[in-house]
Write a structure and sequence with these properties.
heterodimer, A: 209 residues, alpha/beta, five-stranded parallel β-sheet, B: 102 residues, mainly alpha, 4 helices, extended
């Protein structure tokens, strides 16, 4: 049996593509704003043990978010649907069914009721709908993870803007354009955590609430 | 009777990890940490939150000015957020069009 999960850890199962970047930043910033810590599979090396490591990561997190808003075929030929995210969702559902007190998973989508079509076996599970917007992600995070003293969406938007405006320099420093690379993700987390601290200081002072 | 099903939500009571320990697992060199946090501070200041805070702390006379400055900064941020969204949507639309054309 794996050790108890980190009560603030959230496994983020999202598409790693250009179109998704602003929502990716929004998830990271929003989770830190709510006192939670995001984890991605991007840091996990490839190879035959990759799936084992992904499962271990899911097991180490108390929560997971599965964003199935990108169901389109890939733009680059051959046009292919993404199966990694549903696969990781399947692993998570199995783990949570076996140990419901150790894991809670959430479904995210951009369009109402599309999940009933794309994954009808999940009928009865309502997805959080972010409408493909940053505000939608932040607002739904607040709805999913309720915490006393949580900042308002407006305050979270300030943090998002501050982090988002620093991205260019992170990428330049890392010599990459890949925002999902493990090193870039870690730096993004540092900024998001720093922004959460600034937001909390603002709340203490009666501002940014 | 209208039946509605709401997406799941959880009430989080676990304490928030202190800043220093929460960034330890990121394994970022101290010098780089310092540079990135300085960058964030500058970005934060651009959004006038710190300015509004210092103005609010001065005197009652300045309180209204501070509140107004804060409101204006917030409106500017909201506007910028809307612009970011519009730009992102426009870019997404373009990419989808070019992808479907291909």
């Amino acid at each position: 049996m794996p050790p108890q999960p980190n009560p603030n850890a959230v496994f983020l199962n999202i598409p790693y593509d250009q179109d998704f970047q602003s929502l990716y930043i929004a998830y990271i910033v929003g989770l830190y704003q709510l006192g939670l810590t995001p984890f991605l599979t991007s840091g996990i090396p490839g190879g035959e043990r990759r799936l084992d490591r992904i499962l271990a990561l899911i097991q180490s997190c108390r929560y997971s978010i599965h964003d199935l808003s990108r169901v389109e075929l890939s733009a680059t030929p051959p046009a292919t649907p993404r199966f990694n995210m549903p696969l990781e969702l399947g692993l998570t559902i199995t783990w949570a069914k076996m140990h419901p007190k150790r894991h809670t998973w959430f479904l995210w989508e951009s369009i109402h009721r599309r999940i009933q079509k794309s994954m009808s076996d999940l009928d009865g599970t309502d997805a959080h709908i972010h409408s493909g917007t940053v505000v939608g992600v932040l607002s739904e995070l607040r709805n999913a993870f309720v915490r006393d003293g949580a900042p308002s969406v407006q305050a979270m938007m300030v943090a998002y803007s501050a982090v988002e405006s620093s991205i260019h320099e992170i990428l330049e420093g890392a010599g990459t354009r890949n925002l999902y690379a493990a090193a870039t993700f870690r730096e993004l987390c540092l900024l998001a955590r720093g922004a959460a601290r600034l937001t909390q200081e603002g709340i203490k002072d009666g501002l940014a609430t | 009777m209208i039946e509605t099903v709401m997406p799941q939500s959880v009430y989080i009571t676990s304490p928030i990890e202190p800043f220093e320990s929460s960034i330890k697992h990121l394994r970022i060199p101290k010098i780089r940490q310092k540079a990135l946090l300085a960058l964030l501070d500058r970005a934060w200041a651009r959004y006038s939150i710190l300015d509004a805070r210092s103005v609010n702390r001065t005197s009652a006379e300045f309180a209204s000015t501070g509140a107004r400055a804060h409101h204006e900064a917030t409106e500017a941020i909201k506007e910028e957020g809307r612009e970011l969204e519009l730009t992102r949507r426009a870019e997404t639309g373009k990419q989808r069009k070019s992808a479907s054309a291909a």
